[in-house]
Amino acid sequence: MGKNLVIVESPAKAKTIEKFLGSEYSVKSCFGHIRDLSKNNLSIDIDKGFEPEYEIPPEKRKVITELKKALKDAEVVWLATDEDREGEAISWHLVQALNIDQGNARRIVFHEITKPAILEAIKNPRQIDNHLVDAQQARRVLDRLVGYEVSPILWRKIKPALSAGRVQSVAVRLIVEREEEIRSFRAESSFRITGLFRVAGQKEDVTLEAELAKRLKTREEATAFLEKCIGAEFQVSGVETKPARKSPAPPFTTSTLQQEASRKLGFSVAKTMMVAQQLYESGRITYMRTDSVHLSNLALATAKKVIAEKYGDNYIKTRQFTTRSKSAQEAHEAIRPTYLEQEMVTGDASQKRLYDLIWKRTIASQMSEAILEKTVAEISQSNSPELFIARGEVLRFEGFLKVYLESTDEEEGDTGSKMLPPLKQGDRLMRQLIRATERFSQSPARYTEASLVKKLEELGIGRPSTYAPIISTIQKREYAEKKDKEGSVRNYTQITLEGNRMDSEVKQERTGYEKGKLFPTDIGTVVNSFLMKYFENIMDYHFTAAVEKEFDEIAGGRKAWRDMIRSFYTPFHQKVKETMSVSGKQSGERLLGTDPVSGKKVYAKIGRYGPIVQIGESEGNEKPRFAGLQKGQSIEEISLGQALALFNLPRKAGSYEDAEITVAIGRFGPYVRHQGQFYSLGKQDDPYTISEERAIEIIEQKRKKDQERTIRQFEGEPPISILKGKYGPYISSGGKNYRIPKGSDPEGMTREECLDIISRGSKRKK
DNA sequence: CAGTGAGCGAGCTTCCGCTTGACTT
Q: N- or C-end of chain A: fewer Cβ atoms within 10 A?
């Protein structure tokens, strides 16, 4: 056992570093934060200057015990947590929680996990930066105050178990406002004029495609223009050729990795992070939660060598990128392969694909620019001053494009690179075909998980370690949902001039189809407008950036953290109290119309368990009738007819084995009920129309499936069954499940043995 | 884990940022 104890945050890092340091050093990891405010209450003593009350959460007790044990043998403790605000605080908490003697503690930092970097760090120890720790405490306390004071207002005024926070509420706001933009968007159409020409004096099949520089507003204008083309002469009035360059994108950060994996591989941000974690733990990539585009000198040198060997010296261009984002803390390197020589890795398909993406992006970032030649030709015509433009692009040297090209969020346009035929000024052109095509302006696009992360990063909201959890939180709280949108068919006009004939036809195109986009839910919309009304400052897109500035001042020792929190908290808490008493219940209620049967009013609104429709008034003696909205329906869009249809359930679908079959929609979707048992409907089944035959089929299918997973069954009180589950056989009785101890044979177990396990199982729970 | 939804009142929910296993039915 060494005399030196080094503590880092990640166990994978600990393993690597241990190899670099001699036997005098033992390296342990603390697995991130080891203390925090208690989850169960505010844990901030406001009267004592916002004193935070920290505790060691139960899941961290084991880590603390381990570290204390390691501490006994150590003479010097090297606190090697990450070099950022959170890392500094972790070191401070370690000193506090482990009772480390300040005299024996040394704080060290390094940005790359290489032997020289670590030895250098050990040569330059420092003390814990208390100002930086204070900045972290301010961050922590602010987030707790906002989250734990605003959320309860939502429970009271909207629905229990909702949440609000500095980060998540702004993420929801982005989604809600984007939806509003889309709703108020009115597509405008214009006519795009394209022409196909033959170049005089060249072979028959040499043609030139060009587009009119200007779009024409109306059909009439377009027709008039085409008419003018009939007798017109066309010629090349100018040709300009310019060299152009394209540069590679910087290596990956967490956010850009999530975006590219989403666009190129179709991964959700959670999937990307899971696969990246696997690659990191097996030592194949560097740390995956980073905001830095920095590459180590070793990585730069290796990339150079790999590129020289694979593609040749003229493909090399070594670059060090600098981070543009102001909020970046740059405690780590960019995400890159640990060993750039390795072009491929073993593993499952996802690991291979993500690694491939990371390898290509990293290598491309160190390759030379692509050199292009762009040609623009102007075509004039005798009957109109409007110019046609033809664009061509030739790749002279592919450079980094040999390996990798970054994708964009925009839909594919029709501006692919193409070559122009040889042209010179004065060349005469024969008109083959001129076409006016009606085009529509595009509404803004809904966010994908990854494009929302991109937006949040631009606003400086959230951190690499929280992007994926934020996306999951807003969906778990049912503020937003990821879904596809069916497109619709739209008519457009196309007018074609060929020879002297002009034809107009109405064509159809699909539009508005979207896959895997984030849509706001009714609850998300209501919560957002409530928060916008009462807590505009927190909902401000610049709120985080503004408080970050103050945290920086605290970190720089120019401001006291308790003062900063006080000046935020005083008006904020006042607003909390005021909102609690002033604001009414928010249900997002919308009047849909009158029920023709009862003559009562029909509303859609948010109920205790989610969106509902209601017939009749809440006030008064008579109880209103309620029905929950179905998946895909919203308060905003549901019609009176759709709302009334929801009251047709539960309905009788027939009978089976002398018992009635009823159909209804529950919390988990549509179901058939028979003799007290529930059977879920399939995707293709409609609860409003399902036949008796189909309902019976569903019941029998479920019975058969249950039969198949049953290993043994014991009659008697209580009935017990041994079932096959995802994690092996288990015992089920009285609606509870119990594990079977290792070594028992589930086939040969007796009822008594099962009862024994059940009684022991329930004892353990107490 | 399944038919709720008013209102009463018990007790509960909730934040952001750092890190991975232990655990599951």
A: C
